[in-house]
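Summary of Year 1 activities. Much of the first year was spent building the evaluation harness for sequence design. The harness presents a backbone, in tokenized form, and records the residue chosen at every position. We chose the following record to illustrate the format because it has been used consistently in internal testing since the harness was completed.
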């Protein structure tokens, strides 16, 4: 009946400033006044969300450690033969927070202003175009792999230890292509530092009605949505 009588920890298995960290902080700011206690965001990035998830799984089951999960929580269950936790039995789901499309972006140095042009360019330069991701096995990585396979192109994966550095290098031109959440990408798109080519959902986004979908752009049956 006294719960909560101390701060609550909200574990985020990704780096600060990324597309999972932002909704976590939004929830923490609004959940604190409801609970009458501070909700502290605890970023534990690394190992495709496994480090943070294991921390949450092994915490005392007293309600003082909660975690924001995203699509990677289910991806890991199928991607790794063994995890240091049970993806279902070690957790109790509380609420769906949001769903979001992803966005395909390219560095402006690439002479591709559409997905079709990017595919044609990649086919003319096999193995010469790089794409960044926040890490191997992340949702953004698999979304990009779905694009690579669906388009039948040879582009090289460059994994990072978080979305922030991956986007920084894409903006700088060290990598040329990336698929990521609009939450992170839009400021760079609006600033003209990267070019947006498509959204990954089956229908156009209400927030980005001018952007075609991957299916409209010629990648048959392509659909990818992330949830929190």
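For this record, the design step produced the sequence shown next.
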């Amino acid at each position: 009946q006294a719960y909560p009588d101390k701060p609550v920890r909200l574990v985020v298995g990704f780096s600060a400033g990324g597309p999972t960290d932002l909704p976590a902080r939004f929830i923490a700011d609004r959940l604190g006044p409801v609970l009458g206690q501070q909700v502290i965001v605890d970023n534990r990035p690394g190992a495709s969300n496994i480090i943070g998830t294991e921390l949450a799984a092994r915490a005392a089951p007293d309600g003082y450690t909660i975690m924001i999960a995203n699509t990677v929580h289910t991806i890991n269950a199928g991607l790794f033969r063994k995890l240091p936790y049970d993806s279902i039995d070690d957790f109790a789901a509380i609420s769906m927070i949001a769903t979001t499309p992803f966005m395909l972006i390219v560095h402006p140095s690439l002479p591709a202003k559409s997905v079709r042009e990017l595919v044609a360019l990649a086919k003319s330069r096999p193995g010469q175009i790089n794409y960044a991701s926040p890490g191997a096995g992340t949702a953004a990585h698999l979304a990009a792999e779905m694009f690579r396979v669906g388009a039948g192109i040879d582009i090289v994966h460059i994994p990072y230890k978080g979305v922030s550095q991956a986007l920084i290098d894409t903006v700088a031109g060290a990598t040329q292509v990336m698929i990521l959440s609009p939450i992170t990408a839009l400021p760079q798109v609006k600033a003209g530092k990267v070019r947006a080519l498509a959204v990954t959902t089956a229908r156009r986004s209400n927030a980005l009605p001018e952007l075609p979908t991957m299916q409209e752009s010629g990648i048959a049956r392509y659909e990818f949505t992330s949830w929190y």
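Helices lie at 21-35, 50-58, 71-79, 115-124, 139-151, 163-172, 182-190. Quantitative recovery figures across the full test set are reported in Table 2.
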